[in-house]
Amino acid sequence: MNKSAGTSILLQLLIFCALQQTKLRCLDLTVLNSKLNTMFYSNVDKNEGTTSFRSLNIPVGGRAESMGTAYTALADDISFFDYNPAASAVLKNSEAAVFHNAWISDSAVETVAATTRFGNLGTGVQLKCFYVPFTEYNSTGERTTGNYYSETTATLNVSYNFLAGYNFKGIAIGSNLKAAWRSVPDYTDNDTGAIISGSGLAQSGAAVMADLGLLFRFNAAKLYVDRDPNLQIGFSLLNAGNAWTGFGATVTRDDPLPTKVAAGISYRMIRPLTFTAEFRQPVNLSNITSSEQWSAGGGASVQITDFFTCMGGFLLQGANPRISFGSQFEVNKVQMNINYTFDLTTSMNPVNHISLSAKINLGDKGRQKLRDAVDNYYREGIAYYARGNLTAAIEQWKKALELNKYFDPAKEAIKTAERSMQLYRRIVDIQTLE
Question: Which residues, in sequence order, are CB contacts of 314 under 8 Å at separation 6+?
């Protein structure tokens, strides 16, 4: 079966999976729901919802949500913005993406993002908007106002991978700078029913914040051959800053943001299979004792073919178990992701929603071509070395280092060849003395 035919079948399967959302609503989930609520009831968080700009906690969708949002350590695509800002410095390709997450109660999250990398320097931008319809009716049931409540966040990312080399992959450090705006529509006076001009602005708000991230990458217990590290550890501090509510004649006050610290690990023992796990601790910077409870999640990714991957994940946040399933397929450098989430966030009844994403591969700025050239020089040097022409071998390896000064195999090969030449000269000198 060729790739086009396979892709067509997979597309049909994905559409079929999307349609199952409607059918799942018809299933009798009462027993399962009751067991889950009983199991996690003791985890109810009394401080839940005590921070502003809660949309910062809503995943944009895509691959990260499919893996239970346990993404701080993996962060290997454009979804990194909400998890680890250090990741842009190590992404293979420049990417642009759009995300749609149909959240709960007719709310939704729309996101656009782009990222690129210059050597060890990574940059990116993201615009994320959460919105929900706002409609007000009077005592007689007549509609008086209709608009949207929204929270919009703009993010600027920069990161750098320090000490990067062939054997040691470096330490990636990154930061996001964020600005957010909460828009509240004007509402009516309870007595007169007239719209109060500026009432929405008085409850609107703004926020500025920053994220910090670290990413370490290693090779450990690796059962396949690949240059990419199979073990990654990530740390992040997210949404550290402040928010303000009230404008105009209203007194401005400070609001705590949903700040949190996270630590995660990603491990790939064999090429097709990846596991992730993560722990998060919210921190209320205005009052530490009012911080929300910890949360934890995990996920797994199975690559079925070079263009199709299945994913699943679990997230526990307070008394809310969230189970996600997703799939990703690629057609002509465009990766599509569809994710289904079984969520108990706000209701005793299951809340099911779907998120979609489309990601475009914009290329690697010639990094693969450069790596191939370095590899060719290295292999030519090995061929000369095998024939005993050490001088020519060293010349080839030096050419490889001119293209990539961090290519450790060439450095080691030159040292080996130079030691061999020194040994040969010593043997010749000894024979000459005799």
Answer: 68, 297, 298, 299, 321, 322, 323, 324
Which whole-number Å values give the CA distances from 345 to 80, 126, 142, 277, 350, in the listed order?
23, 26, 31, 21, 8
Q: Tell me, what amino acid is at 114?
A: A
The H-or-E segment that residue 424 falls in is helix 408-433
pLDDT in tens, 114-126: 999 999 999 999 9
**Residue 233 to residue 168: CA distance in whole angstroms:** 14
* Strand ranges, E, within 63-204: 95-102, 108-118, 121-137, 143-162, 171-183
User: Which one is predicted more confidently, 25 or 32?
Assistant: 32
The percent helix, strand, coil of the chain (3-state, each to 5) is: 30, 40, 30
Report which residue type is found at 105: S
Which residues are 264's β-sheet partners? Answer: 234, 278
**β 260-267/253-255 pair status:** unpaired
Question: Is-above-0.70 flag for pTM?
Answer: yes
d(CA 54, CA 239): 11
Burial (Cβ within 10 Å: 0-12, 13-18, ≥19) of residue 427: exposed
Torsion 251-242-79-279 (CA) sign: negative
Q: What are 134's strand-pairing partners?
A: 147
